[in-house]
Design brief:
Helices cover 22% and strands 26% of the residues. It is α+β, with helices and mostly antiparallel strands. It has one domain: Deoxyribonuclease I, Chain A (4-Layer Sandwich).
Length: 401
């Protein structure tokens, strides 16, 4: 199974500050570069973008910086805009430098591009098959705020969020166990005067980013993985047989979590070390001179952008991963932003399933000790096959139709 992800901070904030004539060229170059990246990397499954912008006469008729791309769906999620936030300092600067009309609407945030055929599901979906995609149009991305508070129109107080997308695959075959892949798109805080020889600013910025990482690892990844360990309860209570929907399954591979974005820390930082200690793998280990340049078109001098995947030993085999990520790379030929894009194949390790057939696909349901004593064999309830496992307290229910 192959799952390819492309990550890029497109530098939309700087684009808004360019002159009208320069913006035309930048817009053309940026969208051409994105199409080149997509075609040159065999059409990645998912693309994570940071610093996307919208602009126009009003929020209703605002244009996106990313043009429609054939074969992909684009979903943008602004975090700041000129309508909902009363501080106008940022937008006044943009209007002055870019020569925009006084009443122009602006918005800035992050975005996803999903290839049309990727099996995108709601975060909490437990479908047993990638073919059971919800028919609801639009997206199922969830946003978790990492940094909030009063926004003064500057970098130091800019809101930050994690965007979470969920995909379900059946890597061992149509009737095989489902694999959940979660992609978290982030753009973490950076402060003015950081990395400029002022230790206090460096320490403060690091503390803020570590708080962001705590939310990601404790309140997103751990919260979901604990839910899985407990048998996917509803509001803290173990589900009864009748509460499982047709087509759901709790018999799933361990979920794979992918973190992609502009993290605004270097490989020598405490933040990077913390992610490594969480048993995540940097799946683009060779970054050359870096991912961030001082201005568009200049060589990279700093590494701030990453794609991580894990947890290793649970969801990924680190030995196999080490041999399979060597071709993942930063593309230094693309010079349409002050950040360079990176592309990665995620090194999945899919265990072989033991004697698994369609009638054995199951979800774990815990029964009381009295209920366990009543039955030691298979039963049929309606059109659902129920089988009691050999392990005490862990009968399973197959949702075969």
């Amino acid at each position: 199974m192959e799952f390819k992800i492309l990550n890029w901070n497109i530098g939309g904030a700087k684009y808004l500050e360019e002159t009208k004539e320069k913006r035309k060229k930048t817009l053309t170059d940026l969208n051409k570069a994105l199409r080149t990246l997509i075609e040159g990397n065999n059409k990645p499954d998912v693309i994570t973008l940071q610093e996307i912008v919208r602009y126009g006469k009003s929020s209703k008729d605002a244009s996106e910086i990313i043009n429609p791309i054939k074969g992909y769906k684009y979903f943008s999620f602004p975090l700041i805009d000129s309508d909902s936030l009363s501080s106008k300092d940022k937008w006044e600067k943009v209007k002055k430098l870019g020569g925009w009309p006084r009443d122009t609407f602006f918005a800035q945030g992050n975005a996803f591009l999903f290839r049309n055929d990727v099996p995108h599901f709601p975060v909490w979906d437990l479908s047993s098959s990638s073919e059971c995609r919800p028919k609801k149009p639009g997206h199922f991305v969830e946003q978790v705020i990492l940094e909030s508070g009063l926004y003064f129109g500057d970098r130091n107080t800019e809101p930050r969020a994690a965007l979470i997308a969920h995909f379900i695959y059946n890597p061992t075959g149509k009737n095989g166990k489902p694999l959940d892949i979660f992609v978290i798109n982030v753009h973490l805080t950076t402060l003015m005067m950081e990395r400029e020889g002022i230790p206090d600013m460096d320490l403060t910025a690091s503390d803020i980013r570590q708080n962001h990482l705590s939310i990601i690892f404790r309140k997103i990844i751990s919260r979901y993985n604990i839910w899985k360990r407990l048998g996917f309860p509803i509001r803290g209570k173990i589900r009864k047989l009748k509460e499982w929907r047709a087509g759901e399954s709790a018999d799933r591979f361990e979920p794979v979590w992918i973190l992609a974005g502009d993290f605004n820390f270097t490989p020598e930082s405490v933040e990077y070390e913390r992610i490594m200690k969480m048993n995540f793998i940097d799946v683009v280990p060779g970054k050359g001179s870096g991912t961030k340049a001082k201005g568009v078109g200049n060589p990279a001098t700093l590494t701030l952008d990453y794609i991580f995947a894990g947890p290793k030993f649970i969801s990924l085999d680190p030995l196999i991963a080490a041999s399979e990520i060597t071709d993942n790379f930063v593309d230094h030929s693309i010079k349409a932003s002050d950040h360079y894009p990176m592309c990665a194949n995620i090194p999945f390790t899919i265990p072989k399933e033991k004697n698994r057939s369609e009638s054995d696909r199951s979800v774990t349901v815990r029964l009381s000790s009295n209920e366990q004593a009543k039955s030691q064999n298979r039963k049929v309830i309606g059109r659902q096959t129920v089988a009691l496992s050999e392990s005490p307290g862990t009968p399973t229910k197959s949702l075969s139709k």
